[in-house]
């Protein structure tokens, strides 16, 4: 576990430093623009000026904004968002906590005074009206079902944060990198595509990625595993299905204690446990569809197939 976390932190530094450098380079582009960056329209919403203060009402929105390199503009976050947004400044530059989508803290939102508030689903009409009356623009990031929709969300956020032209330049550069990572992971996995099975456990012991989930798509299309939980629905397997499980590998949310997996009756005799093929993942990044999930995939590949990965992280 310590080795995994060290690898994850190293990758986090590489990705975050690169993201900040790219945002700075985008904002200082020498390329002449034929039209001003703002205002921009996102659906029926108009963003009149570059937002310098943003709020994120959901953890998923927070992860996406941070993952795209706009962490330094966040002034408020919703319940459940992870960690201090920028800890070096937390004493002098407070980050307001603004409740949840269904129960927003309107007073805290007013104090934070963001230019834009990102959500992952609609507010109630009453709360939306109250927030908009404060002069705050609400932008909804749709829930993505596949990678095409994930990348469209990244384009949307970058357009809001940087404007029409710079947003497009910045997002396409980042999306190109993420696509390269996916291709590398997919190609390496395909080299090891002998018959093998794997499950992803999001909550101990029976909450497993089933056929309709984004995580099942990752298991099958990106990592080249068959998922024995695929025929079930809504993340839940029956007791009978649990008894039939014998995955070669178990991927699990890093919040789960692997020792519990090893001793649970449905897993204790599986190939994954007897051959010690258990791998931790930052499940929330796949749930939020944030850029950090690509970093998590890279870290996983270093554990699965280290011989196929570059020794230097900068080569990714």
Condensed summary:
By secondary structure, this protein is of the alpha/beta class.
User: Sheet with the most strands?
Assistant: 5 strands, parallel
Secondary structure: helix percent: 40-55%
Category by helix and strand content = alpha/beta
Whole-number mean pLDDT: 89
Order of helices and strands: HEEEHEEHEHEHHEEHHEHHEHH
State the assembly state of the protein chains.
Answer: single chain
For the termini, the CA-CA separation is 23 Å
How do the strands of the widest beta sheet line up side by side?
Answer: 5-4-3-6-7
Q: Segments where pLDDT lies below 50 for 5+ residues? A: 84-91
Quantity of strands, as a count: 11
How many helix segments?
12
- Which of globular, elongated, flat, extended, rod-shaped describes the shape? globular
Q: Beta-strand level of the residues, as a percent range? A: 5-15%
In words, what does this structure look like?
This protein has 316 residues and is α/β, with parallel strands linked by helices. 44% of the residues lie in helices and 13% in strands. It has 12 helices and 11 strands. It has helices at residues 2-27, 59-67, 106-112, 125-133, 147-162, 164-191, 214-222, 239-244, 258-263, 271-274, 283-288, 292-304; strands at residues 40-42, 45-47, 54-56, 74-77, 96-97, 116-119, 137-140, 198-203, 207-208, 249-253, 278-281. The protein has a 5-stranded parallel beta sheet with strand order 5-4-3-6-7, sandwiched between helices. Helix 1 packs across helix 12 (292-304). The two termini are 23 Å apart.
């Amino acid at each position: 576990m310590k080795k995994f976390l060290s690898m994850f932190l190293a990758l986090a530094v590489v990705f975050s430093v690169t993201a900040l450098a790219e945002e700075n380079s985008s904002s200082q582009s020498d390329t002449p623009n034929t039209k001003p960056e703002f205002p921009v329209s996102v659906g029926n919403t108009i963003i009149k000026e570059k937002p310098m203060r943003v709020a994120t009402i959901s953890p998923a929105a927070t992860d996406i904004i941070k993952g795209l390199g706009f962490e330094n503009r966040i002034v408020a976050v919703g319940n459940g968002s992870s960690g201090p947004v920028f800890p070096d400044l937390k004493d002098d530059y407070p980050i307001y906590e603004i409740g949840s989508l269904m129960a927003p803290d309107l007073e805290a939102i007013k104090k934070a005074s963001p230019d834009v508030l990102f959500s992952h689903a609609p507010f109630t009409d009453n709360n939306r009206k109250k927030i908009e009356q404060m002069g705050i623009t609400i932008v909804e990031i749709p829930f993505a079902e596949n990678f095409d929709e994930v990348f469209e969300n990244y384009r949307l956020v970058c357009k809001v944060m940087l404007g029409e032209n710079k947003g497009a330049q910045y997002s396409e550069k980042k999306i190109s990198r993420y696509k390269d990572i996916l291709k590398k992971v997919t190609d390496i996995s395909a080299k090891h595509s002998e018959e093998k099975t794997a499950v992803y456990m999001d909550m101990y012991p029976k909450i497993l990625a089933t056929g309709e989930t984004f995580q099942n798509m990752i298991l099958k299309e990106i990592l080249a595993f068959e998922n024995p939980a695929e025929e079930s629905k809504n993340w839940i397997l029956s007791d009978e299905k649990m008894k039939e499980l014998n995955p070669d590998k178990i991927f699990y949310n890093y919040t789960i204690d692997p020792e519990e997996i090893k001793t649970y009756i449905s897993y204790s005799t599986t190939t994954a446990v007897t051959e010690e093929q258990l791998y931790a993942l930052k499940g929330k990044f796949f749930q939020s569809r944030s850029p950090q999930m690509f970093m998590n995939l890279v870290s996983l590949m270093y554990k699965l197939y280290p011989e196929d990965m570059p020794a230097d992280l900068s080569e990714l």
